[in-house]
Amino acid sequence: MKTTYNQNKMKTLIPVVLLFFAFSGTSHAQFISNDGEFHVASGAIISSGTYALVYSKTKNKSKAFWYGLGASAIAGIAKEVYDSTKPLNKFDAADAAATVVGGLAACTTLSLFVGKNKRRRLKTVALVN
User: Which CA distances in Å does 96 have to 13, 31, 74?
Assistant: First the structure.
C-alpha cells in the first residue's frame, strides 16, 4: 500500500502534538512570569523571518540557520541592554537566553522541514519516452 504525502505528514505531526501536550504542563513551571514566554516567542518570530529571508536568497540551510540564530541573539541582547538603561531595571540574562532559545527552536524546526519538497517531487515523476 502506497502512502500519500498527507499520510506521511500526519505520521510526523501526531507524535509532535503528543509530545507538546505531554511537556506543556511541566515546561510551564520553568518560567516565573509571562515575560519569558514573550521572549521565546519574539526570538522565534525574529529567527523565522531571518531564516526565511536568508534561505530564499542563498538556498543554504546552514547559513540560514546561523543567521537566524544570530539575529535572535542580537535582538535579545539589544533589548536587555536597552532595558538596563531604564531606571529600576537591570540586564536580565535569563530573558536574553529565552530569546535565543526561541530562535534556536524556530531555526531547528525550519532546517528540518524546509527544502524537502524537491526530493519528494522527483520521486513521483514518471519517466516516459
Answer: 30, 13, 9
